[in-house]
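Q: I'm teaching a short session on how sequence maps to structure, and I want students to see two examples side by side rather than one. Could you give me a first protein with its sequence written out and its structure tokens following it? Keep the formatting plain so it prints cleanly on a handout.
A: Of course. Example one:
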Amino acid sequence: MGREVKYYIVAADALPEIFVKVAEAKRMIQTGEVNTVGAATRMAGISRSAFYKYKDSVQPFNDLKSEHIITFYGMLKDAPGVLSRVLSGFAGADANILTINQSIPTNGCAAVTVSAETSDMEMTLEAFLEQISGVEGVVRFEVLAG
């Protein structure tokens, strides 16, 4: 009988340093900054054995956006142009919108869900969420599923 795998999202500053360094080594390899595991581990300041021990268990949160469809949830003020500005943010970030669903506004706000294919986005998911949350008229904006 196989062991059930559970996943947690943990702030980087709460993790042992080795996990953060393994994630950094993986990033260097994936981006082509280095060509070998040996070079990545040297630059990250870890051993190759530590890298191989943890490489399949450590995944930065922003990598969850790669080649995935993510559904975002937002609460928007019922004012002209708010939804348009949010959608412009998606276009500016190279997110391909697949679906948009907006409820009828009540109490001056409307819930909206946007599903988007995000593999072409160059910014991190965290930066994207921060950008859209800062759009005038956005009350709340978060990842619903992805």
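Q: Perfect. Now a second example for contrast.
A: Example two:
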Amino acid sequence: MAGGDASLLAPVIVIAALVIRTAVTELRHPGSARRQWAFATSPRAMAAGATVAAATILVSGTRYGWAAAAWALLIGALTAFLMGRDTPAASTHPSKEQPDSERRIGKVLAAIGAPLALAGVAMYFLPGPGVHVLIIGLSLLATGLVMAAADRR
């Protein structure tokens, strides 16, 4: 593995592990994914995450390329998660809206994961970080499908 690929693999594995952890937790405790991803509805948390990710890319993007983008995605998501922790989360009491919201989040994750997985397969033969994109795409796709299926239980 080339040096760039090795430095790209670490954040990809961490991102995939976090997404798969969400799927496993959702299987065990339906509705938990909504609470874990509640930060995505907070404009303040998302702005903080985007700012940190953009700063990471600006500082190291030219030198590290794809690896800087992967690290920026991971750092931005973790920043948004931490900033969104103090945001009033969705109600922990079951409501009629909760399954619909989880189904919607699951559809969005699957809709993002499927093209990423296909792009990863294409990049396996074309230039680009194929295996890395495939790992993230499959983990997002699996999480989305688990969230959609958990609603039907």
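Q: What should students look for in example two?
A: Point them to this: The two ends are 43 Å apart (CA to CA). Also worth mentioning: Helices lie at 3-28, 32-36, 43-64, 66-84, 97-125, 130-152.
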